[in-house]
Amino acid sequence: MADSSFDIVSKVDRQEADNALNQASKEVEQRYDFKGTGAEIAWSGEDIVIKANSEERAKAVLDVFQTKLIKRGISLKSLEAGEPQASGKEYRIGCKLKNGIDSDNAKKISKIIRDEGPKSIKSQIQGDELRVSSKSRDDLQSVIALLKGKDLELDLQFVNYR
């Protein structure tokens, strides 16, 4: 019998993130408490830039954006937001969406699987994802349950289960 396997990835659906950003932008334009504050949120290449005339307003725009991400099914673990920084008369917050599993986190996940998972499991790091394989599908299911129970700083998805 051939080995069964699945991949562990950490990806953000760019279209859903774009929809969340557009919804947040519309809400910021329409809300009364943001009138005249110069508050805005927009893409800047691959990053997201939030601008407002005060630190509190910039944080409020970030909060609106986080709410929209959650409603769209994107985990906040995928959002890396900086602190508000003064830039002339306005405050800016730079945000990044994390895609892929970096090598440190991949090694950490691999170690968790090796130490706490069933002994028949093999895991390989392949670029920015992990391939987990075993002869037993039940063992693969137990690894998925194990990783879902851990509090990792990444939003993990389990794909290509075969």
What is the global morphology?
elongated
- Termini distance? 13 Å
Quaternary form: single chain
Count up the helices: 4
Which structural category fits the helices and strands?
Answer: alpha+beta
What is the arithmetic mean of pLDDT?
Answer: 91
Main sheet specs:
5 strands, antiparallel
State the CATH topology of the largest domain: Alpha-Beta Plaits
**CATH superfamily descriptor of the largest domain:** YajQ-like, domain 2
At CATH level 2, the architecture of the largest domain is 2-Layer Sandwich
DSSP strand content: 25-35%
Beta-strand segment tally: 9
Give me the Rg, rounded: 20 Å
Indicate the low-confidence ranges by residue numbers. none
User: How many structural domains in the coordinates?
Assistant: 2
* CATH class value of the largest domain: Alpha Beta
- Roughly how much helix do the residues carry, as a percent range? 25-40%
SSE sequence, one letter per element: EHEEHEEEHEEHE
